[in-house]
Write a structure and sequence with these properties.
The chain has about 250 residues and is of the alpha/beta class. The protein has a single domain, classed as HUPs (Rossmann fold). It has helices at about 15-25, 30-40, 55-60, 80-90, 100-110, 115-120, 125-140, 185-195, and strands at about 5, 10-15, 45, 65-70, 95-100, 145, 165, 175-180. The strands form two sheets. A six-stranded mixed beta sheet has the order 5-4-3-6-8-7. Strands 1-2 form a two-stranded antiparallel sheet. The chain binds iron/sulfur cluster (SF4). Iron/sulfur cluster (SF4) binds next to α7.
Length: about 250
């Protein structure tokens, strides 16, 4: 049994994570989000610059000043940067851009150049440009909200729950909770929502991009190809995760 203790300004809440998972299993994204925001003051949405914008759309209706961050790897498509800016203005929210450690990045680029991932895999670059900045941010929140969905990966996202202790980023001193409100929605449901509520979306989606990541590591997919086929396509193996959700990978 895992107990999570949250110490806010005026409140102290204890809950049982397994019990919470039972309560939230198969629930609508709005209900999961509402519960997450009820339980945590210091909670943030991770926004990838893709269709996970629906989380922001739902969350601002519950809490106007919701914390939102994006990983600015320095390698995103120009369209994604424009989209992040569009979302910031549309919802009138702050979007914190998390950038890589300058010295570590300089050292990688000096040693291996700008495209080393094509030669020795994406893990090192993702580690520097995504995982480390995320780790820095998550050390200062009690919980985070992701746009993970089961239908994004048949290999790595089938067994994740609606709420979990984040085993990848928790430490002995700092237990971190992760909510996955869109978990059981299909891509079609997300797009129905975007259309119905006139939610802004990344223009890359109009050009065959489904899963959107960094520009050198993402490409459009063909009809009937799975969306993850457009990510790190030069690498063999199906377990395409960049380390943000390392707990999804079975050892
Ligand atoms: S997706 Fe590609 S460019 Fe972006 S951090 Fe990972 S390896 Fe680097």
């Amino acid at each position: 049994m895992t107990q999570v203790l949250q110490q806010g300004k005026h409140i102290m809440t204890t809950f049982n994570i397994e019990q919470l998972q039972i309560e939230l299993a198969q629930k609508n994204p709005r209900i999961i989000l509402k519960k997450a925001l009820e339980l945590f003051d210091n909670i943030a949405i991770s926004f990838s610059g893709a269709e996970d914008v629906v989380l922001i759309d739902m969350a601002v209706a519950i809490r106007k000043d919701i914390q939102v961050f994006s990983l600015d790897t320095g390698r995103l498509h120009p369209e994604t940067y424009r989209f992040i800016e569009k979302v910031r203005k549309h919802y009138q929210i702050d979007i914190e851009l998390l950038t890589p450690d300058r010295e570590v990045l300089d050292s990688l680029v000096k040693k291996k150049g700008l495209f080393s991932f094509y030669e020795d895999g994406h893990q090192e670059c993702c580690g520097i440009r995504k995982v480390e900045p995320l780790k820095r941010k998550l050390a200062h929140v009690d919980a985070w909200i992701t746009g993970q969905r089961k239908d994004q990966s048949l290999d790595t996202r089938q067994d994740i729950p609606e709420v979990q202790i984040d085993t990848a980023f928790s430490t002995e001193e700092h237990r971190l909770v992760k909510f996955n409100p869109l978990l059981n929605w299909s891509s079609a449901q997300v797009w129905d929502y975007i259309e119905a509520y006139q939610v802004p979306y990344n223009e890359l989606h109009e050009r065959g991009f489904i899963s959107i990541g960094c520009e050198p590591c993402t490409r459009a997919v063909l009809p009937n190809q799975h969306e993850r086929a457009g990510r790190w396509w030069w690498e063999s193996g199906a377990k395409k995760e960049c380390g943000l959700h390392a707990g999804n990978l079975k050892k």
